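User: I'm putting together notes for a lab meeting next week and I want to include a structural view of one of the chains we've been expressing. I don't have a solved structure, so I'd like a prediction I can at least talk through. The sequence is below, exactly as it appears in our construct file.
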Amino acid sequence: MLTQAPRGTKDVLPTESYRWQYLEKMMRTAAAEAGFREVRTPVFEHTELFLRGVGDTTDIVQKEMYTFKDKGDRSITLKPEGTAGAVRAFLESNLYAEPLPCKMYYLAAPVFRYESPQAGRLREHHQFGLECFGAKEATADAELILLAWRLLSSLGIRNLKVNINSIGCPECRPKYNEALKAYLKDHLDELCADCRSRYERNPLRVLDCKKEKCQAVVKDAPVLLDCLDEDCRQHFEDLKACLTAAGIPFEVNPRIVRGLDYYTRTVFELITQTKDGNLTVCGGGRYDHLVEELGGPDLPAVGFGMGMERVLMLLESEGITIPEPPLYDVFVTYMGENRLAAFSLVQNLRNSGFKADMDHTGRSLKAQFKYANKTGSAITATLGDDEVLNGVVKLKNMETREERTVPIQDAALAVMDMLVKE
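Assistant: Thanks for the context. Below is the predicted structure for the 422-residue chain, given as structure tokens.
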């Protein structure tokens, strides 16, 4: 057990971390282009934050949270999602007093859910999330959908589809809950035990159940869109107009409710078709009352979460290769007792901004060249007895086979020239 990672977790090894770094760079760029700045929140929060924010009738709270008592007998929970922590940070730091909207993102944020590990979803997985506070217009919703669409498309992911819905607000949702309960009343025996419990406490959660028998029941249930009040209906029409203007193809899916209780009005998902069926890559929506429910002012907000493991899995399944950068620009090889001269040259090359290294294991010169070739080093710099005696270094481009012998003090300039020509 000491050498086996816990079930539902996965190491990111040095040989694959470049894929994560590439994805993180693309995500940071996409967020920055729309004015989002990074926020980093703790891995754990007070349990009450998620009970009030996520909702005690959701699967996340009922079944999936990692909750424990700390040494001060406080109930602590590892983050099961990113929005609640972002709202807490927004309130604790009084960011609502600054010019709004406040746009923030989190990247490679660990999220913990005790559930059966599945493709692209682990018990510890990582999310890229965007949160926008203080923006009530549908343009803010459309901006997030468009940002996610552009990001995924730029990565090369195909067969993307945007599904949108509106789940109304506290003013119009009671009317729908009454209609839904009236429909479900005749089907209670067909629902799972969890959904029978949700029937009284939060019937909307029945629509989010993934069990086949419950999905069969709600297939013919009333549609929430038919119960929207005028403000919610207009907001949804504005969203559709924005997406149409941006040229983003979308479908209205009245069964999307998302798995969190804080959502209001807009909910959306970006889905792609795979050989194993549809896969949700990104999901989010509007949460106009969460800030107030957690003790802050009445402020609208909207956001999304994107599973990074899922994106990387999709890239691999679609044959999209992320180019692996060379480990070194220059690998310094040496003969005999010229270790110190090689060490000094490595430091000088690094000071000049190159990725450089040397052998630290006592390999023969032939083995050093072999290792340099395995690492993908663009150039080797060799120091033998004659080179050190004459104050020069022999450079070799490993791809073009070009060779140069230059004064050792000019090595950095010569390397730069050889890399540019390559």
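A couple of points you could mention at the meeting. Residues 80 and 111 are 5 Å apart (CA to CA). The two ends are 48 Å apart (CA to CA).

User: Perfect, that's what I needed.
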